[in-house]
Design goal:
The chain is of the alpha+beta class. It is about 30% helix and about 30% strand.
Length: about 270
C-alpha cells in the first residue's frame, strides 16, 4: 500500500468526482486541493493509533499547532471505513472543519462536518443518508482528534516539519506537490510505554483480560490546584503534566492499560458504535 494512499485519493478525488468539486466550490472560497497542499502532513503508526483510540477526552481548550492538518491513517467507525482525516480552519476563522474520506462500494468519497460539538451537521448534502456518519460516530472522531492534539502538546513529544524531498520533480511531471511532513518524535517515558511496555502487556496478558481506557485529566480549578500551577514548565514536564490551549490549562494523560478478568479486545481493534 502507498504510504500516502489516503492523501493521494483525496487530492485526486477533487479532480475526479464532479460532485465533490461542485460541493467544494459551493461551500468554500478555496478548493480542497489547495487546502491539502497547505496542510501539515502527519503519518501515524498502529501503536500510536491504538493508544489514541483507547483514551477518552473531554478537553474544551485545544491547541491547534497549524491552520490545516492532514492525518494519513485508516480505521473503522461502526461499519464505515475512514480513509484519512483533514482538520482545517473555517474560512471565517471561527472554529475548525473535519474532513474525511469514506470507502464505500470500492468508491472513494469525501465528507466534512464541524469540529465543535454543537456543530455536528454534515456539510456535504450530496451524500446519501447511509453514507454520512451519525452523531455518535462524529463524536468518536472528535474524541480521537482531541487526543491527537493533546498528544502533540505532551512534554515527551516533539514535532519537526520538513519539506517533501521530491516536490520539485513532482511539479515538473505535472503532479500535485505533497505538503510539508510533520514528523513526530516521541521520547522518554511515553516512548517506552507506547512501544515497549504496552506491547509487553499485550503479549503477557492473561487469557481473560480487558482494556482500561485512558483519559486526559484536566486541572480546571486553579484555586484548588494552585500547587500544580505554581510549578515551572520544566517541573511540570518532569512530572508528566502538560500545559496548553488558549487558557493555559494543565492536564495529565492517564494512559490506557490491560487488567485481568474480562476479554482482551482484538489486536486489530475497530471503533464500534
Amino acid at each position: 500500500m502507498n504510504k500516502l494512499e489516503n492523501y493521494s485519493n483525496l487530492v485526486n478525488g477533487t479532480n475526479k468526482y464532479n460532485v465533490v468539486r461542485k460541493f467544494m466550490k459551493k461551500t468554500t472560497l478555496i478548493t480542497l486541493e489547495e487546502t491539502l497542499k497547505d496542510a501539515k502532513l502527519f503519518v501515524l503508526d498502529e501503536e500510536l493509533l491504538k493508544i489514541l483510540f483507547l483514551t477518552d477526552n473531554k478537553s474544551k481548550s485545544l491547541e491547534f499547532p497549524f491552520p490545516n492538518i492532514f492525518i494519513e491513517t485508516s480505521f473503522m467507525v461502526g461499519n464505515k471505513e475512514i480513509k484519512g482525516l483533514l482538520i482545517r480552519k473555517r474560512n471565517d476563522g471561527k472554529g475548525h472543519i473535519i474532513g474525511h474520506g469514506i470507502l464505500k462500494d470500492n468508491e472513494f468519497r469525501y465528507n466534512e462536518f464541524g469540529f465543535e460539538e454543537d456543530d455536528l451537521d454534515p456539510i456535504n448534502e450530496d451524500f446519501e443518508s447511509n453514507e454520512i456518519l451519525n452523531d455518535e460516530e462524529h463524536e468518536k472522531i472528535i474524541n480521537f482528534l482531541s487526543n491527537f492534539l493533546n498528544f502533540l502538546n505532551h512534554p515527551d513529544v516533539e514535532v519537526r516539519v520538513r519539506e517533501w524531498p521530491s516536490n520539485e520533480a513532482r511539479e515538473k511531471r505535472g503532479k500535485t506537490p505533497i505538503p510539508d511532513q510533520a514528523e513526530i518524535k516521541i521520547t522518554g517515558k511515553l516512548y517506552r510505554y507506547i512501544y515497549e511496555e504496552l506491547p509487553k502487556q499485550e503479549r503477557e496478558a492473561p487469557k481473560h483480560s480487558f482494556w482500561v481506557r485512558g483519559h486526559f485529566r484536566n486541572f480546571l480549578k486553579r484555586n484548588k490546584w494552585n500547587r500544580i500551577y505554581k510549578l515551572s514548565i520544566e517541573e511540570l514536564n518532569k512530572r508528566g503534566y502538560q500545559k496548553g490551549g488558549g487558557m493555559g490549562t494543565i492536564s495529565k494523560w492517564i494512559l490506557p492499560y490491560i487488567k485481568g478478568q474480562g476479554i482482551l479486545i482484538n489486536k486489530n481493534y475497530h471503533v464500534e458504535k
